[in-house]
Design brief:
Elements (H helix, E strand, L loop, with lengths): L5 H4 L2 H18 L12 H15 L11 H5 L6 H17 L4 H12 L2 H5 L7
Length: 125
Amino acid sequence: MPEGTLYERLGEREGIRAVVDDFYDRLVADEQLGPFFADADMELLRRTQTDFLCEAAGGPETYDAAPVREAHIDVPFEPTHIERAIELLEASLDAFDVPADDAAAVVDAVAAYETELLASPDEEV
């Protein structure tokens, strides 16, 4: 059984932020996903994603940004975009040698919001 919490194993806030920074670098550079970030406040995105993953991993941080659905409602994501983002997240986790079980927990935390990420403004809540 792994030692410590997922948050601790990921390197606490500093380690999680490093993975998030790598992940967003990959997103922005990606031919398919990069255009979604053309006008984005990247520092805000990096900070809120770090908070989200810290909280999801059992850390003391709290994700207090807009709800996921609300924050992404006008972004025309398709399932293939989510799949590509997950591939990039997995690559970032692998680049930091995050063990497979811990990487799966991080991916699962993000993937749990797929419905909210794919929501469109004309759908009822």
